[in-house]
Amino acid sequence: MENEKYLSVWALTKYIRRKFDADPHLQNVYIKGEISNFKRHSSGHMYFTLKDEKARLLAVMFSANSSHLKFQPENGMKVLARGDVSVYEQSGQYQVYVKSMSPDGVGDLYLAYEQLKKKLENEGLFSQNHKKAIPRYPVTVGVITSPTGAALRDILTTIKRRYPIAKVIIYPALVQGANAAASIAKAITIANARAEADVLIAGRGGGSIEELWAFNEEVVAQSIYDSDIPIISAVGHETDFTIADFAADLRAPTPTGAAELAVPHYNEILEKIMNRKIRLTRFIHERTNFENSKLARLEKSYAFRYPRKMYEQKTEQLDRATERLQRGSSRYFVKKSEQLDNIHAVLKKQHPEQQLTEMRAKLDQRLKDLNRRMEGVFRENTQNFIRMTATLSALSPLKIMERGYGLVFDNKETLVKSTAQVKKGELIEVQIKDGTLECEIKEIKERNGDE
Fold first, then answer.
1. Rounded Cα distance, 183 and 130, in Å
2. Which letter does DSSP use for residue 118 in this model?
3. What is the pLDDT of residue 143?
4. Entry pTM
5. Residues 82, 157: Cα–Cα separation, whole Å
6. Of 176, 179, 230, 260, which residue has the fewest beta carbons closer than 10 angstroms?
């Protein structure tokens, strides 16, 4: 029974939550603080912390409420929040469930405007390189605005006053309210699909930032950027700047100003035509006077007054020129004939038959020179041979043999030069002048060195 005094954690937490929910001072609480630990869940719910210098408070903003925000919450942003304080039972922590929120010190629409402007500028939707030129003399002007607004009346009046020959096509669109941005974007798409207009004017009259907000939506800026037809924005008054103004090819301060930028003034065109007519008339007059003066000078010239003399002079010049041509032709012919003869002589000299004859003569001469040299070499070598033969004959062993000498060889046919090479009883050969003697050694007698 003692345990009945103890509460479960869940029971206590639930009791505390009921206390929070029943306290009217914790409902519709207005809180000012700085956002930190901001997280956006894929479901669209936002989880963050509101803090000041002394405390922190957990906060939740469900997608049903966060979808209506006109700005993107960020860490470090100071905000004004409205919501209910309650307890999250699973963690036992109290937190504020935010129903609405706005930036502290600046309107949420203005902050949303600045955030979208920065985003689209970084994406290049405001690039000057992408902007198209407005045609000087459009045939058809398209107007995207409310068909019942004062802006349309101002545009039509201005175009009719300035350029009545222009055709105007109205593409009706909502310019205020929740569906206005989609309506404007659709009208731009339709105008491009039909390709009827040379230039488009998109805008409306003045109003509050909430009333002009459709022209600050990204879908409108993207449609203006994707348009093949040049677009002039005309939203509000001169001090009103919208995202559409930055994306458009040209911004007008007012709808009337857009009409003035879209079409020229017919008085200005007439003035240009008159100026050009005056310049053209002056030019024709001056050119006519110049050509008349030139004709008068020609009529007074020697050729028109004395045509026969000019003819006779030209005939004489022709005769002289003919004579010079004939003399020149003769000299030219003689010169070319001489050049031809020279070329013929050179060709004849370089003809293969002529060269062959010359080469044969050179070959015969060289053969004669070779024969003479060979005979000289032969005689010289013959004399050297005779001298060498005589020397060799004088040194030949046969000559020595004729004086009674002989050569002794042992049985190995080795020339015997000493008694030490043979032994008693060995057979030896003795070559003499007219034959060979086979002998046997009977005795070996050595000769003393002093004998």
1. 24
2. H
3. 96
4. 0.48
5. 49
6. 179
Q: Which two tokens stand for residue 415?
A: 């020339």
The strand pair at 78-88 and 29-40 is best described as: antiparallel
Q: Which of 264, 239, 263, 235 is nearest to 248 (CA)?
A: 235
All residue ranges of the chain with pLDDT < 50 are 451
Nearest to 123 by CA among 241, 246, 249: 246
CA distance 72 to 116: 10
| Cα–Cα distance for residue pair 106/8, rounded to 1 Å | 47
Per-residue pLDDT at 327: 87
Give me the sheet containing 167-172, strands edge to edge. 167-172, 140-145, 199-204, 231-235, 250-251
Q: Kindly tell me the sign of the dihedral angle through the C-alpha atoms of 82, 86, 88, 92.
A: positive
Distance separating alpha carbons of residues 121 and 114, to the nearest angstrom:
10
Q: What angle do CA 179, 182, 187 make, to 5 degrees?
A: 120
Q: Token match 């669209």: residue?
A: 44
pLDDT attached to residue 106:
55
φ, ψ at 398 (rounded to 5°): -65, -40
The CA radius of gyration of the chain, in Å to the nearest whole number, is: 65
What is the bridge-based pairing of β-strands 56-61 and 78-88?
Answer: unpaired
Residues 6+ apart with CB under 8 A from 251: 232, 233, 245
Buried b (16+ CB within 10 A) or exposed e, 9-28: eeeebeeebeebeeeeebee
Question: How many angstroms separate the CA atoms of 201 and 224, rounded?
Answer: 11
The whole-number pLDDT of residue 2 equals 60
Question: What are the backbone dihedrals phi and psi of residue 235, each rounded to the nearest 5 degrees, phi first?
Answer: -115, 120
Bridging pattern class, strands 231-235 and 407-409: unpaired
Confirm if 96 and 58 have CB atoms less than 8 A apart.
yes
Structure confidence at residue 233 (pLDDT): 95
Alpha carbon distance, N-terminus to C-terminus of the chain: 168
Residue at token pair 């911004």: 251
Contact, 180 vs 240, CB < 8 A?
A: no
248, 235 Cβ separation under 8 angstroms: no
Using alpha carbons, select from 96, 102, 108 the residue that is nearest to residue 28: 96
Best CA proximity match to 244, nearest among 283, 208, 204: 204
